[in-house]
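Subject: Protein entry, chain in single-letter code together with its fold tokens

Area: Proteins and the way their chains fold up in space.

Attached in line: The record itself begins immediately under this heading.
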Amino acid sequence: MKKTLLFSAIAMALAGCSGDTDHSVGNMRGTATLNGNPVVGVTMSVTIDDSDGYQIGTETYSWTADDQVLSGVTGSEYTLTEAELGKTIRVGVQYTDRGNTFEDIQTQRTAEIVANEAGVVTITLTPVDDSFDVPIVGDTVTASVTDIAGTETSEFMYQWLADDVAIDNAVEQSYIIDTADVDKVLTVQVDYTDDAGVEETIVSDATDPVEDGSDTGPNIDNNVVEFSDTSTSQGGQLRYKMSSSDMITNGKLTVRFNKEDVMDTDGNAKDAYITLYGTSTSNSNALLDLRIQSEAFIIRDSETAVPDTFTFRTWNDVEVVWDTSAREVTLTINDGTPITYTPTPANGSTAWDTLSGGVQTVQFKVGDSGSTIPTGSYYIDDFYLYSDAAGTAVQFSDDYESYDRNYSLSDADGYNASTYEAEVIQQKYE
């Protein structure tokens, strides 16, 4: 009797090893996931995840719509039709895992199936200046597409338009607004095929009209000089040159400057400059060539670091004191720690020969001779030049208040004839 009972118990245990959905110790129950957006035309698919693995070829699928079996649909994929509109989809999955356990599981239930609709493209604006609430030159616009059918398999083709006219070469997802777009509205057209296989051509809503940025923002009742650069032969500059008898060996310069994010036509950042020359106006002979970069400073041909920084569209004070006999320059920015150093012009002793009589020319400049600048400007104000280091004997000064606005400075105003694209305007920034 005992032997009969033992045999029966063993037989039952062996049968249980391959019985339906046996999840005894050692077996990990699998899961099935239904993938794809619940939209007519989308091909939905089922994936199985089982840490035990599963035996390929043992899996079967039962697709249901509102819990009613979809006749003849037995594969791992199914393309939704209008017959499933308003219904929910769920799939039952059966298979044998690699532990020889039979699994019977179900996917999650979808939301109600909806009809396919045209996608939507929106434009996001990344401004060069957060104080502007309209698109301006230099801003970046970016297209984003949403489609209820999904876009995982989509390849997008973009075309940006200004006043409904295609912009040449503006065929990427993002576009940097150009001066040619001023007073126009921007839209973007996107062509693609959604995950339901529907070919889409969609157009965004229009932006506000583009402004150049010069007439927007806070204006202050004060005149300043704005530098432009529309020529590939030279950058915008204001140059003051003294006679040889007035050259300053031991002197001082103070000036205020403001710089926007200046970029050339290729989107490359461009420097502005404050430069002191002797009898030569070659940069290789300069006593000081302060390069005002993207919120940082560098002294050309010098290993002296300038730790000071600045913020675009803010006014900054620069003070330079020099003694060419002692070969010494002291630079102070915004009342920071003075930096005293010995200049090392690239031309060495030749440069010092041109500086032996002192400083003859002061130059403020933006850009260079190899490009033009459609985006951003450089500004100066309150230019004072002293013939002594203490700053008590004024050699030359200009606060630009005596000029009419939109007046172009020239040699008729006491500046050198090399002055170019330096215009008096109303101050824009505090």
About this structure: The helical segments are 2-16, 349-354.
